[in-house]
Design goal:
5 helices, about 100 residues, about 0% strand, mainly alpha, about 80% helix, globular
Amino acid sequence: HPDTAGTYNNMAVVYQARGNFAEAVEFYEQSLRIKRALLGEQHLSTARTKGNLGFCLGKMPGRQAEGKVLLEECIAAMTAAMGAGHPAIQFYRGLLEQTK
């Protein structure tokens, strides 16, 4: 259910804000699985969750490459849907820069 995906995403945000990236990743992954199944790979909500998960992975030793791929997928989907100049895309580009 989409509300369940939203709840998982919100829990991930809380864990991430507290610096508990491993727990945050688990919740982001649950949210992403649901969104992929219900909304599809290119949906903006799916893309945002990919971006959030990617940023979180980018903060974890040994998982930065994984995070970078998800952020790039997020940016590509959002660019296709909203155009390259949208502020949300600039936000996720900034997060991508932080994972390098």
